[in-house]
Amino acid sequence: LTGYDILGIANKLIVNLYADDTTIYLNENDKYSDLEDILTSWCLASGTKFNMEKTEIILIGSTRHCKRVITTCKLNLIDSPLDNAIKIAPDGHPIHSLGAWIRNKTNNITPWELVIDKINSTLNRWKKCHPTLAGKQLIIQMFIGRMTQFLMKAQGMPKNIEAALTKMIWNFIWDDKHSPPISLEQLQRPKEDGGINLLDIKSRNEVIEVMWIKPYLDLSPSRPDWAFIAD
Q: Would you say 228 and 4 are in contact if contact means Cβ atoms under 8 Å apart?
């Protein structure tokens, strides 16, 4: 397999392993049949089973190339046709990979809709317990903070989703009151400044964005591979 040569990365980009997930990078001259032969040999040698039926293909490259692969079910003209069980994700249809949703020409809001629904359901259940203000602060931190942090770091958060989450926090804290006695900004302050350390989604997101910039600007030998790919 040829994979990709990325300027600044010593090794070719061919495979990325994380837990039980494997991502293979094939260029336009690689043959999927060669990959199948390699995986078959590896399974025989290791005694494990590779879930080929769970294989999903995300196309990169020119629009013409992507359309040809979808039409012919071949990565290139000399390759064998792909198995019918293998899914090729068309533009606009994201694939779930390691907790993130990736694909070309997708709506950035779509992955967040499931998260918003899950958070809303969770908060509605907690409302029935009539938690105190301090309890609500912990609930917001545990659920809204935890359920949104990874996806925000993986692919960012649209501003309208940020605004929707802020409104959900506001309504949960004050039980949907129209005239709450304390502003959200005051509640977000530290306890020594009269607040309750309430989760500030906007500030939290800004910190995550800064933490992305830090390794990207790192020009030392420890610079991560994704930064060279972004270049």
A: no
How far is residue 218's CA from residue 8's CA, in Å, rounded to a whole number? 13
Q: Which two tokens stand for residue 83?
A: 């198995």
Task: Look up residue 73 and give its DSSP letter.
Answer: S
Quick one: tokens of 225?
Answer: 């591979």
Burial 220-230 (b: 16+ CB within 10 A, else e): eeeeeeebeee
Residues 27/3, Cβ–Cβ less than 8 Å: yes
Query: Contact 65/59 with Cβ under 8 angstroms?
Result: yes
Beta strand spans in 38-108 (E): 56-58, 87-89, 95-97, 100-102
* Contact criterion met (CB below 8 Å) for 45 and 56: no
How far apart (Å, rounded) are the C-alpha atoms in residues 224 and 218? 9
> What's the sign of the alpha-carbon dihedral 105, 108, 113, 119?
positive
Report the DSSP pairing between strands 100-102 and 21-24.
unpaired
User: Are 158 and 166 spatial neighbours (Cβ–Cβ below 8 Å)?
Assistant: no
Per-residue pLDDT tens, the chain, 231 aa: give them: 888 888 888 888 888 877 777 888 888 888 888 888 888 898 889 888 777 777 888 888 788 888 888 888 888 888 888 887 788 877 777 777 777 777 677 777 878 888 999 999 999 999 999 999 999 999 999 999 999 998 898 888 999 999 999 999 999 999 877 778 889 899 999 999 999 999 999 999 999 999 989 989 988 888 888 888 888
Using an 8 Å Cβ cutoff, are 79 and 2 in contact? no
